[in-house]
Amino acid sequence: MTDRNALDTLQRYGIHPSVQRIAIMDYLLKHCTHPTVDEVYVALGKDIPTLSKTTVYNTLRLFAEHGAAQMLTIDEKKVCFDGVVTSHAHFMCKRCGRLMDVQLPGCFQECQPAEADFIVEETHLYYKGVCKSCAHKVNA
Amino acid sequence: MTDRNALDTLQRYGIHPSVQRIAIMDYLLKHCTHPTVDEVYVALGKDIPTLSKTTVYNTLRLFAEHGAAQMLTIDEKKVCFDGVVTSHAHFMCKRCGRLMDVQLPGCFQECQPAEADFIVEETHLYYKGVCKSCAHKVNA
DNA sequence: TATTTGCATTGTAAACAATACAAATTTATA
DNA sequence: TATAAATTTGTATTGTTTACAATGCAAATA
Are A90 and A117 in contact (CB under 8 A)? Predict the structure, then answer.
């Protein structure tokens, strides 16, 4: 039932389905690696040879606008996308560049900005550092 | 005492001073507007006509690497820099695009990732939404 | 005072991400 | 089926960032 899940997700967020949109959402749901536009484009290009990169850009942006995906700007080089939209934090390893999901700290619920001068729509929390497997490697 | 402060800051972070580096740090310390590379470049170009944009890129990156400045990737369009390196959060208004400092919520000290699989070097917390002055405007 | 050394700066070229836009295609609707 | 609307495609373009080679400059050494 591969794209059933994807189709459901699109409909749940009020996004008109199409072959491309289903494929992209399906990819997001199946690959929790926080892919970039290019990664999605290259991966899906095998199945959909006519796929245009512009479509991937537009579609992922559309997903983010509808709340069906999260746009992550943690790495300054490239924007990544996350199909998991429930609240969670991220960790980026400065050595290998990988982006990983992290559970939100328990205390986080109350962590809203002290000032009342803003209407908060999104909260982003992430860490940067060195992941375990990189820390184990000898070379600095 | 304009660049005295800047000079001190550079030395404190082990950065060799130079005319350009002092000027750029001085700008960062005086303008808490989270400027982009281009903003710094344009602003300082008046005083240092020979300044190269590459130098601004290199210098700000150098500052960030030495912990003398913070690199902010909140806006997916452009990287911003913050001369304030003490812990604080940010708020970005989706309408006007402004980036503002926000006090860290009191509970935040304990907010370290639950997993022990990472060596955390940086913690980033920010919010996106609508700022007060934009919320007051009539037009959506 | 010359020479050397090494880092900093400059400026151009190139890589790359992202967007704009118009044509082509597909889908929905009458 | 015809028509309109929405989506996709592909190219051209913009703009940011990096790579790199050449130059400048200042402190150290001869």
Answer: no
